[in-house]
Design goal:
The complex is a heterodimer of chains A (300) and B (329). Chain A has 300 residues and is mainly α. Helix content of chain A is 75%, strand content 0%. Chain A folds into 2 domains: 55 residues; 214 residues, MetI-like (MetI-like fold, Orthogonal Bundle). Chain A contains 16 helices and no strands. The N terminus of chain A is likely disordered. Chain B has a single domain, classed as MetI-like fold, CATH 1.10.3720.10. Classes of the chains: A mainly alpha (300), B mainly alpha (329).
Chain lengths: 300, 329
């Protein structure tokens, strides 16, 4: 062993150093790839966030400066945010939008949960047909039905109010049914059977066992319903009519630049006001949002 | 007491249908049926009143001269004839909507897939980057559109300023018939976070063993994408693409708000500048709600319905995920 040692040690040493060099090379290559990937991600982050920063900066510029291409406000004019409320009925628009989105959320949840539960948990012959119809409703452009619906609501003297947008939500919203069903399928049947064996009726199973387990999905559906209503432009444009005091924030903002502001600064301040609630809530309920979005996609 | 005696009797002669138990079984079945109907009842009403009824009415009104004032009269195919041969703007609207489906949708899918692939490979801060990339998707469409018109403003917007620093003379964007649709496409890319999150989840679901096996077989990254990643995520990509195509089909808000904001007037002609952003949905809206040609608007709606259904049925045929068998527990 001692006789063999020097040569062997020499050979193995050379082997190790060559191996180390290779590892260093591949390590360096990996570091470069790591840097490239993260640099690309940072670049994308700047592109995605740039517009938001620009809106914020423009919203506190003076009238004159918002007409120039300067990016940094020379004088931070926070009074733009109060001017948004005094120059246009922005407060009323916000109030209308909160009422509209709140009612839509409530109606959507109450009506969609039982339907989703039936689709996910009961066996009946028409189930596949009902589920296909739900998907069709989800995919159907609202423009296809808008004319007869408008005529119907006009006959009921409800045009010019938000009711034509709220009432249909009380009868099941296709997207919410779909999302809730996808979530319900992930709850093991054993939990429900255990409750049934304990003598719970189907309604009690839904209320006492399923609803608490569904909390993340209900939060996601509620948030989506609220912010879809908050963001909606087409519906309120058609139904809230000509009077600005009936408008929602989306309709008001769309006409803001042409009706209330010559300069960009006030328009951008109004834009910030429309975006802020969504972004603030998102930071608190990020998980629910991302899980909800994922749930709609993975079953494709 | 009654049920008890029933139970003992059935226990004595288990095989074969028992005429004595069938009323009880039938009662239970009836209870089950009533329960199912009760749970489904909101949807049944909604389906009838807010889908089936207006759908039939749309079809009927498309054969009439309905205008909201006088009662509608049957006019046969006149609305459809007008659409295909006389409406001066419809072909421009069809071309623009076709452009959105053929250029904007593929751009969005490729961009979202690219961003998702970058995010999936990140080792540090993947969660943070995912949040940042998703965030713009939440911006209300009206607010995002107003912001982009300001951002791409030829004289004061930062986009042309940056292009100017690079020595490029920026176009008029939302004021140019050539550049208005590409500018709207940028807006769509900015807000494609939803699609990106869906793709990211699908990419992270691809089993790592598949990549390891492919790597041992000596494949290059491109081949691994082509033969491992793509087949696994393709159902998700298909679903997202069809959803985006249908969204493009009803593209309305961004086009309308961009026209109004860039032109600086609520009375901006639809499709400003030069009809370049006039979409099919906008044409339907104008026909129905500014000209009150409800019958003609319904004919446009029927065409929209047929095209949307063709894409939906194509999706349902291809996508195995919609197979309702999985609901059977």
């Amino acid at each position: 062993m001692t006789a063999l040692a020097p040569a062997a040690r020499d050979r193995s040493a050379r082997g190790v150093s060559a191996h180390n060099a290779a590892r260093r090379r591949s390590g360096r290559r990996r570091t470069l790839i790591w840097i490239a990937e993260h640099a690309l991600a940072c670049g994308l982050a700047v592109a995605f966030l740039g517009p938001v920063v620009f809106i914020l900066l423009t919203s506190v510029m003076t009238d004159q400066q918002s007409l120039t291409s300067n990016l940094w406000p020379a004088h931070w004019q926070w009074s733009n945010y109060t001017a948004v409320f005094s120059k246009a009925p922005t407060g009323t628009w916000i109030k209308n939008t909160v009422v509209y989105a709140g009612l839509v959320t409530m109606c959507t949840l109450v009506s969609s949960v039982p339907v989703a539960y039936a689709l996910a948990r009961f066996r009946f012959r028409a189930r596949n047909g009902v589920f296909l119809a739900v998907i069709m409703m989800m995919m159907l452009p609202p423009q296809v039905l808008v004319i007869p619906m408008y005529i119907m609501w006009a006959r009921l003297h409800l045009t010019g109010t938000i009711w034509p947008l709220v009432i249909p939500c009380a009868f099941g919203d296709a997207f919410s049914i779909f999302l809730l069903r996808q979530f319900l399928l992930t709850i093991p049947e054993d939990y429900l059977n255990a409750a049934r064996i304990d003598g719970c009726s189907e309604v009690r199973v839904l209320l006492r066992v399923v609803l608490p387990m569904m909390r993340p999905a209900i939060v996601a559906v509620g948030l989506f319903a609220f912010f879809n209503a908050w963001n909606d432009y087409y519906g309120p444009l058609i139904y809230t009519g000509e009077k600005p005091e009936h408008w929602t924030l989306a309709v008001g903002l769309a006409s803001f630049k042409s009706a209330h502001a010559v300069q960009w600064n006030l328009t951008m301040a109004a834009t910030v006001i429309a975006m802020a609630p969504v972004i603030i809530v998102f930071f608190f309920a990020q998980k629910a949002f991302i899980e909800g979005v994922t749930l709609t996609g993975v079953k494709g | 007491m009654g049920t008890l005696s029933l139970a003992t009797r059935t226990a004595r002669r288990p095989p074969g249908p028992d005429p004595q138990t069938s009323p009880a079984v039938r009662a239970k079945r009836r209870r089950t049926r009533v329960r199912i109907l009760l749970f489904l009842s909101p949807w049944i009403v909604g389906f009838t009143v807010f889908l089936a009824y207006p759908l039939v009415m749309t079809l009927w009104l498309s054969f009439t001269n309905s205008d909201m004032i006088s009662s509608p009269h049957f006019v046969g195919l006149r609305n459809y004839r007008y659409m295909f041969s006389d409406d001066p703007q419809i072909w421009q609207a069809v071309r623009n909507t076709g452009w959105l489906m053929a250029v904007m949708v593929p751009a969005q899918v490729l961009f979202a897939l690219g961003v998702a692939m970058v995010t999936a490979r990140l080792k540090a801060g993947a969660g943070l980057f995912r949040t940042l990339f998703y965030l713009p998707a939440l911006a209300p469409p009206v607010a995002a559109t107003v912001a982009f018109v300001c951002l791409f403003n030829p004289s004061s917007g930062p986009v042309n300023k940056i292009l100017g620093l690079l020595g490029v003379h920026g176009p008029l964007w939302f004021d140019s018939p050539v550049w208005s649709k590409p500018a709207l496409t940028m807006l769509t890319l900015w807000g494609s976070g939803t699609m990106m999150v869906i793709f990211l989840a699908a990419l992270l679901d691809v089993p790592a063993e598949l990549y390891e096996a492919a790597e041992l077989d000596g494949t290059n990254p491109l081949q691994r994408f082509r033969y491992v990643t793509l087949p696994t995520i393709s159902p998700v990509v298909l679903f997202a693409t069809v959803t985006a195509v249908i969204a493009a089909l009803q593209y309305f808000t961004q086009a309308m708000v961009a026209s109004q904001t860039a032109d600086g007037s609520i009375q901006a002609p639809p499709g400003y500048p030069g009809g370049s952003t006039l979409t099919f949905s906008q044409q339907l809206y104008t026909a129905g709600f500014t000209q009150f040609h409800m019958g003609y608007a319904c004919a446009l709606a029927v065409v929209l319905f047929i095209v949307a259904m063709v894409f939906t049925v194509a999706l349902l045929r291809r996508a195995s995920g919609f197979n309702t068998e999985e609901a059977t527990q």
